[in-house]
């Protein structure tokens, strides 16, 4: 059997998990939509059918004060049970266990009624919490217990108590947020009293044959967080209190250390779960930046954890486990940790989905049934939109021919995959390269399509993407001829040797990608994969100031980032913070990384001319000369859809960047492709 450690059953005594794969908790906002529990039941059902051993739901509040935001799901009344039974009934059609996560947001709640152990406002919240009175603390405990009892009535196999990521229980545990002087604060024994009381009372109320998971913060990544000894001692006490499984929590949401973004090395935090396993006998779940069965297998085989928690990978591919089990890991649609379709949407109060899988959280409305009329379809352009349309249309039975002018599939993803922290974008290309031939798609590479090539097809889909916009600057043509002005494509594909003094014109996503590429010397020769991975982890620790040993409470250490070997200046016309349009949950990371690398960012720039001296600009009316070796053009893109005007004899559809280059992103392009394939 492939992946024998990952797919091995786990016996809990009164219950057995069929494998070691956990679909970790993530909120999708489906519950808050119309007929939301029907939708979320289908969402979990498909993952259960896909082979996962244990599902942990998104956080459900035990009371009104604990909701993360207004109108979020609560398990508080008997009437709530019926909704949740839709979920448990759906999951239990398969050999899959499901636990409801009980989450009280505390001072992280995005509403005026938030409560906390102390009235210390969170830096990520506009609201200030009210300090809980002693008797109110007791009521909060009772609400947790009542919620767990209702969860059992609803058919859940257990509950996970959310004690990490800086939510209410975690706020009681650490000194940073607990300044109480009663029995719930002060010494460590008092600060963990709240967590242990919840666990003990839940166990007493639900009995022994009910899975009890505690999500423990193994590293807070904040000042005055838990020390190593405190984490270990709490884990021991939780085991004594009859917790069945310890789950891994990493970092508080307010921490300025990346924990799940794509720049976090794969499996980076597994040493923390490995350490906890030395002190307790109950199973330990590890988590964060694990997205392949190969990595999950290695972690368990090496004894670093007993179970592997993956959340976003199950957005990307509901059939993750079945594919691994059937020795088809190469067919897994890998999560690229972009956060665009999931976390970024949740933060703006939209329903989550997935960049590489638009069906995620759309299971009840985006389906690809057999087409009534089978058509011959030509897809011109094999970037994200073209590849996605070809896949979905072929699934519906259409005969699809995919034309690509270049020698391989992928389009702009081939460029993105060169950027440090975005290498997993190449996994999406690997997925389509594997999957499209299996679906019978006729792939024609190195083929520049002419209108006459398309006569035999019933309909044509134009997915030819974008071309770089050339800015109107005096001397631009001279600069191009002299090789002084270089396109972002030439940089990322290493077609040009770039000098040590560089100006990047354009402060959008492409400008940031190029700056990251050059600041990290990604155009230089790299070491072997093993050496490179070790170097990547060491540099990540040094740059973000992480102490995995927790020798300092909270796990923070002194930062030490190697500055860029080049002098890089990013220029932006608009008078606003660079990277404003970057992802809400990842943009701050890119900005901070470039700051660490000492990349200069200048806004309010007017471009005057380019000559032998360099790039002449003015900044808020003041002239300046940048004597640079190269100027990288990242000033935006234009639609490449010239073929459309030559096609008038048949239906022609335009997708992705070819349709609109403004605000272009792969999530939009792939979603457009899926919707068109569903209807054609």
TrEMBL record:
Keywords: Flavoprotein, FMN, Iron, Iron-sulfur, Metal-binding, Oxidoreductase. Residues 6-329 form the NADH:flavin oxidoreductase/NADH oxidase N-terminal domain. Residues 376-643 form the FAD/NAD(P)-binding domain. Gene3D superfamilies: Aldolase class I, FAD/NAD(P)-binding domain, NAD(P)-binding Rossmann-like Domain. SUPFAM superfamilies: FAD/NAD(P)-binding domain, FMN-linked oxidoreductases, Nucleotide-binding domain. GO terms for molecular function: FMN binding; iron-sulfur cluster binding; metal ion binding; oxidoreductase activity. It comes from Litorilituus lipolyticus. The keyword Flavoprotein applies. In the N-terminal section; belongs to the NADH:flavin oxidoreductase/NADH oxidase family. CDD domains: DCR_FMN (cd02930). It comes from the Bacteria. This is NADPH-dependent 2,4-dienoyl-CoA reductase. The keyword Transmembrane helix does not apply. Its cofactor is [4Fe-4S] cluster; FMN. PANTHER family: 2,4-DIENOYL-COA REDUCTASE (PTHR42917), 2,4-DIENOYL-COA REDUCTASE [(2E)-ENOYL-COA-PRODUCING] (PTHR42917:SF2). Transmembrane segments: none annotated.
């Amino acid at each position: 059997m492939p992946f024998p450690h990952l797919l091995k059953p786990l016996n809990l005594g009164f219950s057995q998990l069929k494998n070691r794969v956990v679909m970790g908790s993530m909120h999708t906002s489906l519950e808050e939509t119309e007929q939301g529990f029907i939708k979320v039941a289908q969402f979990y059902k498909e993952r259960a059918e896909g082979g996962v051993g244990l599902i942990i739901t998104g956080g459900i509040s035990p009371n009104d004060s604990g909701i993360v935001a207004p109108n979020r799901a609560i398990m508080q009344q008997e009437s709530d049970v019926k909704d949740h039974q839709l979920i448990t009934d759906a999951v239990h059609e398969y050999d899959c266990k499901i636990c409801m996560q009980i989450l009280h947001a505390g001072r992280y709640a995005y509403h005026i009624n938030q409560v906390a152990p102390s009235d210390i406002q969170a830096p990520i919240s506009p609201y200030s919490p009210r300090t809980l009175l002693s008797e109110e603390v007791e009521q909060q405990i009772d609400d947790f217990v009542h919620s767990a009892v209702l969860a059992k009535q609803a058919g859940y196999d257990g509950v996970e108590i959310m004690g990490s990521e800086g939510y209410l229980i975690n706020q009681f545990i650490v000194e940073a947020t607990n300044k109480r002087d009663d029995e719930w604060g002060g010494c460590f024994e008092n600060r963990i009293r709240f967590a242990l009381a919840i666990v003990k009372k839940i166990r007493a109320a639900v009995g022994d044959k009910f899975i009890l998971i505690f999500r423990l913060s193994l590293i807070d990544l904040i000042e005055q967080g838990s020390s190593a000894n405190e984490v270990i001692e709490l884990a021991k006490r939780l085991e004594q209190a009859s917790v069945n499984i310890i789950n891994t929590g990493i970092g508080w949401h307010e921490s300025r250390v990346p924990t799940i973004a794509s720049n976090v090395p794969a499996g980076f935090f597994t040493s923390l779960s490995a350490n906890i396993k030395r002190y307790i006998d109950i199973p330990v779940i590890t988590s964060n930046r694990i997205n392949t069965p190969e990595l999950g297998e290695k972690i368990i085989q090496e004894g670093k954890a007993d179970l592997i928690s993956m959340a976003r990978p199950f957005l990307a591919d509901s059939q993750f486990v079945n594919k691994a089990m059937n020795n088809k890991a190469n067919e897994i649609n890998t999560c690229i940790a972009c956060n665009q379709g999931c976390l970024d949407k949740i933060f703006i109060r939209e329903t989550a989905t997935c960049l590489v899988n638009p069906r995620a959280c759309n299971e009840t409305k985006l389906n690809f049934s057999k087409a009534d009329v089978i058509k011959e379809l030509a897809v011109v352009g094999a970037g994200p939109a073209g590849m996605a349309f070809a896949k979905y249309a072929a699934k519906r039975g259409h005969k699809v021919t995919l034309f690509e002018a270049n020698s391989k599939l992928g389009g702009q993803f081939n460029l993105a995959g060169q950027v440090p922290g975005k290498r997993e974008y190449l996994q999406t290309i690997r997925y389509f390269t594997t999957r499209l031939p299996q679906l019978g798609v006729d792939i024609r590479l190195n083929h520049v399509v002419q209108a006459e090539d398309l006569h035999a097809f019933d309909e044509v889909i134009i997915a030819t993407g974008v071309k770089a916009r050339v800015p109107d600057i005096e001397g631009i043509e001279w600069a191009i001829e002299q090789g002084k002005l270089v396109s972002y494509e030439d940089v990322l594909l290493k077609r040009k040797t770039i000098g040590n003094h560089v100006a990047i014109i354009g402060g959008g996503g492409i400008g940031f990608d190029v700056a990251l590429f050059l600041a990290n010397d990604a155009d230089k020769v790299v070491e072997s994969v093993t050496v490179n991975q070790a170097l990547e982890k060491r540099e990540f620790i040094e740059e973000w100031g992480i102490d995995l040993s927790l020798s300092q409470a909270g796990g923070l250490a002194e930062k030490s980032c190697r500055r860029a070997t080049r002098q890089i200046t990013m220029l932006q016309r608009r008078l606003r913070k660079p990277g404003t349009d970057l992802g809400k949950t990842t943009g701050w990371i890119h900005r901070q990384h470039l700051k660490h690398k000492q990349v200069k960012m200048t806004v309010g720039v007017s471009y005057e001319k380019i000559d032998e001296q360099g790039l002449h600009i003015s900044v808020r009316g003041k002239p300046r000369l940048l004597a640079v070796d190269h100027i990288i053009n990242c000033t935006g893109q234009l639609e490449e859809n010239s073929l459309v005007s030559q096609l008038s004899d048949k239906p022609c559809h335009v997708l992705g960047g070819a349709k609109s280059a403004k605000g272009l992103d792969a999530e939009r392009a792939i979603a457009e492709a899926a919707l068109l394939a569903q209807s054609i």
